[in-house]
Amino acid sequence: MTLTIDLHTHSHVSDGTESPADLVRSAAATGLDVVALTDHDTVRGWDEARAAAKENQIGLVPGIEISCQREGRSIHLLGYLFDPEDVDLLGEIERARESRVTRMDRMVEAMAADGIPISIEEVRAQLAPGATLGRPHLADALVTAGVVPDRAVAFRDYLHNESRYYRGHYAVDPVRGVELVLAAGGVPVIAHPFTVTRGRTLDPAVLDEMIAAGLVGIEAHHRDHTDESVAVALDLARAHDLLVTGSSDYHGTGKPNRLGENRTAPDALERLLGLATGSPALAPRKA
Ligand code: AMP
Ligand code: ZN
Ligand code: FE
Ligand code: FE
Questions:
Q1: 113 CA distance to ligand 4 centroid (A)?
Q2: Three-class DSSP labels, 52-100
Q3: Distance 9 CA to ligand 4 centre (A)
Q4: What would the pLDDT profile of 195-227 be if each residue is shown by its tens digit?
Q5: Residue nearest to atom 5 of ligand 1 (CA)
Q6: Mutation pick for ligand 1 pocket among 8, 11, 12, 15 (CB with most ligand atoms within 8 Å)
Q7: CA of 108 to the centre of ligand 4 (A)
């Protein structure tokens, strides 16, 4: 039997809409054999996801999606199976999370100055306890306030990267991100490298630096990739012996992405598991 594996999902501990336990249950109900939880800049969902995975007899790969930045360009780095108590990694994550809070204040202020009726309290009301604050929560607040019908329109009209209301937040350099994940015993995989934001894609020189720093894998199969960019990613993987992942980037009802819509091959997962020393994965039920 071939395992069905999805290595990139978000719960409401960041900006998904389901609790970690519900997400794991959804993954099991969808027929996935292994799911990774990769909330933005936090590991707070790991324990709940692990307990739910045991209960539902589904494999779990605890992970994270680290927001990185180089010269104003945002790069997302997936990290799997690292030590969740690693001080250096936690320090960087915490710094990013704190910066997200002040950044949100500035976005809300900019909107209020233009007469868009939204308060930071309304944004906070969208947040699960301990969750990583992000633009999707601002989007949800705009929906609740009746300014827009859904998240997609909120991003299209107000929250996209070129919007006059967009503000950045502190994010670690991608090479440092790779080093931190490795040092914590984890496996670094670049997320959707060819997503087009602001018409600018990843600088190949930065990717080369990340590879030189020990990047292990590349997320080739992702809904934000065109057929051409999947082919480029697969070429890069061959050239640099990177493991190839595919995943949904599921956010619950917050995005159209469906669990398992892109998947990772079992041999890639096996290689990933073999490299990790920071924390254990939960094996899938026996076939
Ligand atoms: P932030 O990290 O706060 O800058 O927000 C980025 C988050 O917004 C990511 O999780 C994206 O998945 C999400 N996002 C970006 N564009 C959209 C969109 N059009 N609809 C819904 N979510 C989006
Ligand atoms: Zn997200
Ligand atoms: Fe991402
Ligand atoms: Fe993601």
A1: 31
A2: HHHHHCCEEEEEEEEEEEECCEEEEEEEECCCCCCHHHHHHHHHHHHHH
A3: 6
A4: 876 556 788 999 999 999 999 999 999 999 999
A5: 135
A6: 15
A7: 23
Distance 77 CA to ligand 4 centre (A): 9
Tens of pLDDT, residues 67-86:
999 988 889 999 999 999 99
* pTM, two decimal places: 0.93
State the ligand closest to the CA atom of 97.
Answer: 1
CA distance 82 to 190: 15
Angle, nearest 10°, between helix axes 204-212 and 174-183?
20
Q: Which atom of ligand 1 is nearest to the CA of 160?
A: 16
Q: How far is CA 159 from the centre of its chain?
A: 18
Look at residues 160, 101, 128, 123 and name the one whose alpha carbon lies nearest to residue 11: 128
For residue 191, the ligand closest to its alpha carbon is 3
Low-confidence ranges of the chain (pLDDT < 50): 287
Residues with CB under 6 A from ligand 1: 15, 40, 67, 134-136, 151-152, 155, 255
Instruction: Give the number of other Cβ atoms within 10 Å of residue 83's Cβ.
Output: 17
